[in-house]
Amino acid sequence: MKFLWPEALVLLVALPLLVALYVWLLGRRKKAALRYASLSLVRDAIGAGSRVRRHVPPLLLLVALTLALVAIARPTAVVTLPSQHDLVVLAMDISRSMLAEDVKPNRITAAQEAARAFIADQPRNTRVAIVSFAGTAQLVQPPTHNKEDLLAAIDRFQLQRATAIGSAIVVSLSTIFPDAGIDLASVNARRGGGGGAMSLDRPPLNDGAKAPFKPVPAGSYPSAVIILLTDGQTTTGPDPIEAARLAADRGVRIYTVGIGTADGEILRTEGWSMRVRLDEESLKTIANLTRGEYYYAGSAPDLTKVYQMLNAKLVFEKRETEITALFTAAAAALTTLAALLSLLWFHRVA
């Protein structure tokens, strides 16, 4: 548990003083009781049960005061709450390495089947968009509630060469924030046609934005998430780690899914061969930067389970939330209980 105003916790030092004051008042009462001719008569009249009960209301008040003082410090905790995502962007790798058959019947078929099941389980109020990427990335299905359109977009995948994970993240962000000036075309133009992944200059991506951009805490954007599936390593396009930082600056979580084997295998097709290998470290870094999570799927059933877990996570998610109201409500309840017990047992509010 954390506190937004931790300096307010200094008020807790007053609690031992209150306990000492209570003990002092009890001592004064005992001295007053000695004035009776027979103290045993007083004890018999009070009874052992009453002697214990008279301390219960003050104890409850002490606990209530403690909770109230903690509430002043505005405590926060990580709690599980219903998510507010109204947009999920599925970014799916369609590079030729997805033809590898280490995931049966092959990676792309397993990925398509898992994506179909994921889409079928989405609630009606959640829009889904689909971004496909290989040597570049493109939005193949704008955000929609129409599941038939989404399934048709998945069926139209055509495999291409190369892998541009950074491009997939940039296009996904431009889908979530269409008016933010995030433009993959301008990024590629600045790159100048060089080979390999390029370092992404973050500020220029806001050239078209209507207002100056101010970064927000990573993972704080509640309305959309990106689920990125790939089986390979970045070979072209923007640096995926820098692209992930763009997402983190906007609070968008990226959940990454790695499919295939980390050791890779030799893929032979159409007269050429290549070793396809999963870059788990980059996917983990992307997920960590954006406060998402990384999942590995080494088989078709594993991939289906991953999408099922993601679906459950998007319905309910853990978020750091201020819980001052809970402490305040508990303090009020204990104060009320102390007053009721005092009235019931002693016919007064002590």
What report would you give on this structure?
- With 350 residues, the protein is α/β, with parallel strands linked by helices.
- It is built from twelve helices and eleven strands.
- The strands form three sheets. It has a six-stranded mixed sheet with strand order 5-4-3-6-7-10, sandwiched between helices. A three-stranded antiparallel sheet has the order 1-2-11.
- Strand 8 and strand 9 (272-276) form a beta hairpin.
- Helix 9 (240-249) runs parallel beside helix 10 (280-289).
- It is elongated, with a radius of gyration of 31 Å.
- Mean pLDDT is 82; it is low at 203-209.
Please provide a brief summary of the model.
The chain is α/β, with parallel strands linked by helices and 350 residues long. The protein contains twelve helices and eleven strands.
Jot down its keywords.
350 residues; alpha/beta; 6-stranded mixed β-sheet; 3-stranded antiparallel β-sheet; 12 helices; elongated
